[in-house]
Amino acid sequence: MQRFHWERELLQGWLDNQPTPAGELYARSASGGRIDWAAIAASPGYDEMKQELLEEGSRLADRPIPELTQELYGLFEATGNRLAYEGVYFERRRRLTTFALLHLLFPGEPPYARRLEETIESILAETTWCLPAHMKDESVDRGIDLFAAETGFALGEIAALIGERLPRELTDAMKAQVNRRLFVPYLTLGPYHWETAEHNWAAVCAGSIGAAALLIEPDAARRAAMCAKAVGAMNHYLSGFGEDGACLEGPGYWNYGFGYYVYFADLLRRATGGRADLFEDGKVRRIALFQQQCYLAGNRPANFSDAMPRVNVHLGLSDYLAALHEETEHPPLAVRAAFLDDHCARFAPALRNVIWFRPEARRGADWQPGSWYLPDAQWMISRRAADAGTFGFAAKGGTNDEPHNHNDVGHFILLADDDPAFAADLGCGEYTAQYFGADRYAYDCTGAHGHSLPMIDGRGQASGAASHAIVLEASTSELEDRFVLELAACYPASGLVSLQRSFDWVKSGPPRLTLTDTYRFAAQAAQITECIVTRCRPRVIEDGRILIAGTRHTAVLEYEAGLFEAAVEERMFANHYGVREHYYRLQLIAQPGTSKLFAAELRFVFR
User: Which superkingdom heads the taxonomic lineage of this protein's source (predicted)?
Assistant: First the structure.
């Protein structure tokens, strides 16, 4: 569906009629207000942010700019390792972001300007701004990936905001390199695969190039042509969402993809005097609401797919959306993303975390409680606040053919405050060539065996679109939520005629979750293994009763005694940053023909 369409000529007319200097396209919020950098630097409301920047500036001050060598670049092709090259690449971007923001806040400090200039010069000299993992099918002169686009956008913003304080020849070189590496190939060598992608690549790549064009492209026709192409890509990006606004890639990718959608939309709206408005759509409004719906407790979201178990919030983006839509919540300060949280050190969100942050906004100590069913994603999410703490439950249907897919149809999460997850999603594993290759579902993070799902005769769910849920019931109320799924399609060749999984989440008093799996086989029942993935060490108290103890709360798993043999397996996996972590796989094993029904109750015991 083409939600937004403005011909290049129309955009060019609007842009020509709004000859706003690039540096004046920035405002304090969606509702306007001039940026006063001196006032921000003097305001106590920004003290924590400023301290983070100053400390990072001090750390980087006397360190040499790390070198991106051909040896590092070749590691991905040779071994599949991404982290070695990317660690150096992102350290260079961190220097760029840190010294640019410090120079904006403290323009009278000469060392910040000098280090910023040195960093820019080194980035302009890089052979490519793309990561090696994204360059398998692209030549250096043609390649545009997420990070090349982000780099060009960052340089465009720095030129617009600080350009007059930098040497003229350096500013000219920045613009020339953005033109050579982004503008020329975008206009003449495409289309690129991401121009029609229905995920974050479309928003980040096209949004970055369109925004950079608005800021530094002097030719009106070329500027309008790039913006028209970017708007087309944004339509594809929006097509990747259902009408419920859920981001199947999770809140981290929502921050990322939707963030760049908003950054471009904001600049385009201001540059055209409000005529080209990418916010004027109900679906965009519902996407904006997704963030406050997906959190279960504090900074812990329903982290299905390649989402992290903890995701802090970009308050700049959130406060901008709250000014745009009154139903959008200002997030609690406790979940603010610190400057160092973004290991990629992206300039665009870091800048807006400063200029769009509203320290005077009214915020709660935590997210507002509530329950939501997102019908297109087939997610049930509930956040329960009680005197004893905050409790969160989430379960998903969907398919095993989703963006950043895990084989996880019917999987669920159960949290309480800051305790380790009682029923966990491991989240995102280390990105390697193999992780995105033929062996993807051998990893614990991605395979069915690393999720709270049944195994049939030792086999987990199949991957692919045919492996899907049918939602039989989804209801929410003040006291109880109910979610019922048919999952037999996820287990082909298992002999299953039906596998109904029901969740009953009772929120009155001490919250409790009842999980019921009902099996029907065409012939002889197979061996059933019920699995629960937890970050807490389970302890079998007696047949039919298992204790799962956190640091503050305890969950008790109760099931019918005599039908299952309990086993606990401790396993290790590599998280997104390559760090080894452990988890527990609790298995309840029934022999063939002994059980067609599994019913278990997980309830909290307060200590």
Answer: Bacteria
